[in-house]
Amino acid sequence: MTASPTVRRRRIARELRHLRERTGMTLDQAARQLDMSKSNLSRIENAQIGIKPRDVRAALALYQVTGEDAEALIEIARGAQQRGWWQNYSDVLPEWFEFYVGLEAEAATLRTYEAESVPGLLQTEEYARAIYRLTAGEDGVDRKVAARMQRQEVLHQKQPVQLSVVLNEAVLRRPVGGAAVMRDQLRQMLDISQLPNVTIQVLPFAAGGHPAMTTPYVILGFADAAEEPVVYLDNLTMGLALEEAAHVHGYTLVHEKLSRMALTPEDSATYLEAASRYFA
């Protein structure tokens, strides 16, 4: 069973939508039977809001799901009401990013491309602090950095996430926070790249144009076969989760191509070492 309440909420949403569609009921019809608004049911089915276990039980009865199948889904709904650690930082993390962190906490694989900055899972405290000051100012910066550091535990837990990172060369050349901060950041990435579950590759300028020039991305995969992979995109003010198989497949092909275009992990480690000396 999944551990993250975000993933559980997503699972319940998908199951309820599938069951309603299987019965042939419209959103309107099901919402009236469940004594809720059409908009609320739509938001539940899209995992935008949660649903209480008793309302899940009512929906399952409406869709004629009983016995062990019903009890298993109700148990997942109970888990979806638990609090994830990231919810303790809701004063500094926007709701749309809390959703991402909840997925990240449960992910078995993460594949990402970054064009301008070091991914959060690889950042030092001082680099993260510099990024937040540049993009969001001083407000809540200490708690934002603390949340970012806690996210990094997925790399070191008993069953760590398998992380594949492709970095534009610009990420390593742009001196964020000053030379000392950048030197320490590059050395930390070099250390992390030695973990058996982490692959870091540098995409050099010499590689020329590539298929991710318009957008960084994260592809999240899950160990539970019932959980579909997700592509996550974000910017300063919003995030977008793409769940359709065609989107995931397209970004997966892009990541595979970038990995072929980038330096090998070994050559990338050599590059990181040389880049850290540049900022000495």
Automatic annotation (TrEMBL):
Record-annotated HTH cro/C1-type domain positions: 16-70
Taxonomy, superkingdom: Bacteria
Any matching Pfam family: DUF5753
CDD domains: HTH_XRE (cd00093)
Alphabetized SMART domains for the sequence: HTH_XRE
Protein name: Helix-turn-helix domain-containing protein
